[in-house]
Amino acid sequence: MDASLLVPWDERLTAYDFGHDHPLAPVRVELTMRLARDLGVLDAPEVLLAPVPAAPDEVLELVHAPEYIHAVKNVAHVPQSERARFGLGTDDNPLFPGMHEASALVVGASVAAADAVWSGAAGHAANMAGGLHHAMRAHASGFCLYNDVAIAIARLLEQGATRVAYVDIDAHHGDGVQAAFYNDPRVLTISVHEHPSTLFPGTGLAQECGGPDAQGMAVNLALPAGTRDAHWLRAFEAVVPPLLSAFDPQILVTQHGCDSHALDPLAHLMLSVDGQRLAAEALHRLAHEHAGGRWLLFGGGGYAVVEVVPRIWTHVLAEAAHRPIPPRTETPEQWRVFAAERSGRLAPLTMSDGQHPELRLWVDGFNPADPIDREVLATRRAVFPHHGLDILF
């Protein structure tokens, strides 16, 4: 393999911008790349930054309807009724100049990353500007215009992959990716998210487990609002590793939305940067244990744009580069100055929240009074039998 970690990158990726007051602020990606560079992650010899090609229509059509792509391209001339049908021009998905071009560039970066890993040009590849997991075939949703993750997976299938595992740890259900492959037995989708009773998009219960030809291939672990590091990690370990072991994927695709953090203004989980870092470590380990080291990773949600997103995504990139950053590492002073200039907010002093989560395993016992344990058991009951796995409890 030519590079341990390929990172398709172009400053134009920050043009995916819904406007000043929108939660999905592109400065979070800018600050991530600057922090990763200032900490030496992107300058490591095993890391290659590559140019980003925009995805052509035929690539977008791997997932999206041609009439939807046409509407995004020509949105200024699309009647309001048609915009509404396609989910364009809403509060979540407002119009902005060059929205097709910006979105196609994000997809192009994700597809380039997928191609690199599948071909063996890189062991791992990351597009932190990607992870737009809510977009549907003919409908924008949840800040997502084109579903770069689903398109990258479809590209892998087109290239000959027959077993692709996708793990989504965003606080929001990965509904768009699930929908794209709900009846496709070649793709295992696992989403670990906040319970739909308290968070958009209102889907992702354990009972959503795949179409008639793919029973057990859609996996949903919906955790109660307020879930903290140790309980989140216990739930993750109870569901994700056994399924990946049973499925034996050829490649692991992961989405690292970090809106599960306690400071996130849109979601209600209570993870720390330290818990999220441990999740990235676990996914890296699982890629090597069950996917021959092939790991394709994306950003996603995350709306504490200075306090959280740059730190956790820099940890993710460092993990993928096989150069993990010690939690107590100080953030570089020049980065803190840059963050203040770009955002008007004070940046964190270290790469840690000072938490040390202790992992209690599922085999240690089931507590029927614990709502988190009940959700874990519901997920295991819904999908484990389809994979020949013991539900246990």
UniProtKB/TrEMBL annotation:
UniProt keyword annotation of Ribonucleoprotein present: no
Signal peptide boundaries: none
InterPro entries on file: AcuC, HDACs, His_deacetylse_dom, His_deacetylse_dom_sf, Ureohydrolase_dom_sf
Gene3D superfamilies per the UniProt record, alphabetical: Histone deacetylase domain (3.40.800.20)
UniProt pathway annotation: Ketone degradation; acetoin degradation
Keyword Secreted: no
GO MF annotations, alphabetized: histone deacetylase activity
Residue stretches making up the Histone deacetylase domain: 22-318
GO biological process, one term: acetoin catabolic process
Keywords: Acetoin catabolism
Family to which the UniProt record says this protein belongs: Belongs to the histone deacetylase family.
UniProt name for this protein: Acetoin utilization protein AcuC
Annotated organism of origin: Actinocrinis puniceicyclus
UniProt lineage: Bacteria, Bacillati, Actinomycetota, Actinomycetes, Catenulisporales
